[in-house]
Specification:
The protein is built from 16 helices and 14 strands. By secondary structure, the protein is α/β, with parallel strands linked by helices. The protein folds into two domains: about 180 residues, Alpha-Beta Complex (Aspartate Aminotransferase, domain 1); about 250 residues, Type I PLP-dependent aspartate aminotransferase-like (Major domain) (Aspartate Aminotransferase, domain 2). Strands 4-10-9-8-7-5-6 form a seven-stranded mixed sheet, with helices on both faces. Helix 9 links the parallel strand 7 and strand 8. Helix 8 runs parallel beside helix 9. The longest helix has about 35 residues. It is globular and about 60 Å long. The structure holds pyridoxal-5'-phosphate.
């Protein structure tokens, strides 16, 4: 009896808190829009800069998805960011759910990270010689992800995956690799077969400029499909030929997709059986879904891991690493060559240390609770609207898919209504919410977001859904 009473009192308190918050966020949202002069679709300064940029850069941008081709319209030029907010050149403010495509787990211009970068910069920006900070960061990474027994710093996720594959081929003395349909691992030639992210969104599955020879040893298999994976391993032509299987354990580049429970353990078993190295590309999921990445979440040990995004604290930094015997083939210890003038750059490493220092278990609990609020809130909006949509989420990463069937692989991701996403994207942008400008991408929440920020996103979505 007493328990029931206590419980209902608690439920009432929760309900009251939710009502209070919804009211607050309504006020917050309205004042936010007033500060932006209401709807912000008029962006003359951005438009002018875009026209100049088009004279200089292909498509006016320095990375394809930034061009808004997947949602229509022209890109917004940003000039500053503070916490969870960014400002465009026309003076509009947006709540940012792009987070620079993943790195900014503490939001923009985090004071501790900036202080670390400034301190590092004032004592020299690059040496081309070993520095003590590299050891500090590497030890922190290995403590969080013990499978990285030995590692190497590079300057981007692309470099990390490209190098990891070279190492796998050098170690196994085999040529072929398996990648996932819609998996994105940066833009190295061998991995630009059926790639996700911009290559997918812009409909460039094969990619011109990548020769047939470059992808001749790349086998592409759908995600979450163990039969297809087994068949790829068993095929006569591939027997004892597969150096590595590279996979995003939680794919984030065909929108956010989750592995089925048995999937990753079975990949581990298949790789063991066929003496193939298992490479987890955790460039997005590493230090995003938890301190130990997806490998800790799912309890599966890869042979090699690639990191990027969060570990650079917003500066260019990548990592590949794993089993000590495998990493032993890397020059100068072994015959596999890989190098970089700016590898282990002092500023990037300092930003990485400052990030990892603060990224404790409490931080991940906060991120997960913010993510939960957003998922619940959007879920209610979707149910009330009757529009076919669903939210897929892990911690602070999510995708709002405009389809009502579960997205488990590229084929199901492609069922999503990209035209409707484009309308949603622009309606939200005009209300001051900056999302990734493509349906098949993951959005990110940072520790600079507050519960009110999340609620104001939900309030805006509620306003937008009936217009879709
Ligand atoms: C972003 C990304 C990359 C590429 O990293 P860059 O730093 O853009 O080269 C590789 N793999 C995954 C899973 C990514 O999300």
């Amino acid at each position: 009896m007493d328990g029931v009473k206590r419980k209902s009192a608690r439920t009432q308190a929760q309900q009251a808190e939710r009502t209070r918050r919804a009211r607050l966020s309504q006020v917050h949202y309205i004042s936010f829009r007033m500060a932006n002069n209401g709807i912000t679709s008029h962006r003359p300064a951005s438009q002018g800069l875009y026209e100049r940029a088009c004279q200089l850069f292909p498509g006016g941008v320095n990375s394809p998805v930034r061009a808004f081709k997947a949602v229509g319209g022209t890109p917004v030029f940003l000039h500053s960011g503070q916490g969870a907010r960014v400002q465009d050149v026309d003076g509009n403010t947006y709540l940012d759910f792009l987070g620079s495509w993943g790195p900014l787990i503490f939001g923009h211009a985090d004071p501790d990270i900036i202080a670390a970068i400034v301190a590092a910069a004032s004592s020299g920006t690059s040496f081309g010689a070993p520095t003590p900070r590299e050891i500090d960061l590497a030890e922190r990474i290995r403590l969080a992800m013990p499978t990285l027994e030995k590692l190497r710093f590079v300057s981007s996720g692309t470099e990390a995956t490209m190098s990891a594959l070279r190492v796998a081929r050098g170690f196994t003395k085999r040529s072929k690799i398996i990648k996932i349909d819609g998996g994105y691992h940066g833009h190295a030639d061998t991995l630009l077969a059926a790639a996700g992210s911009g290559a997918l969104t812009l409909g460039i599955p094969g990619s011109a400029g990548v020769t047939a020879a470059a992808v001749a040893d790349t086998i592409v298999v759908p995600f979450n499909d163990l039969d297809a994976m087994e068949a790829a391993f068993e095929a006569e032509a591939n027997r004892d030929q597969i150096a590595a299987l590279i996979v995003e354990p939680i794919p984030g580049n065909m929108g956010l997709v989750l592995p089925r429970p048995a999937y990753l353990p079975k990949l581990r078993a298949l790789c063991d059986h066929h003496k193939t190295l298992l490479i987890f590309d955790e460039v997005i999921s590493g230090f995003r879904v938890g301190r130990g990445g997806a490998q800790q979440l799912f309890g599966v040990r890869p042979d090699l891991t690639c990191l990027g995004k969060v570990i650079g604290g917003g500066l260019p930094l990548g990592v590949y690493g794993g089993r000590a015997d495998v990493m032993g083939v890397v020059a100068p210890e072994g015959p596999v060559y890989q190098a970089g003038t700016l590898s282990g750059n002092p500023l990037a490493v300092a930003a990485g240390i400052a990030t990892l220092k603060k990224l404790d278990d409490a931080a991940f609990r906060t991120l997960d609770s913010l993510g939960g609020m957003l998922e619940d809130g959007l879920g209610r909006v979707i149910r009330r609207s009757g529009i076919k949509a669903r939210v897929q989420r892990v911690g602070s990463m999510f995708t709002l898919f405009f389809t009502d069937t579960e997205v488990t692989d590229l084929a199901s991701a492609k069922q999503a209504d990209t035209t409707r996403f484009g309308r949603f994207f622009h309606a939200m942008l005009d209300r001051g919410f900056y999302l990734p400008p493509a349906q098949l991408e993951a959005a990110f929440i940072s520790l600079a977001h507050t519960p009110d920020d999340i609620e104001s996103f939900v309030v805006a979505a509620k306003e937008v859904f009936p217009t879709l």
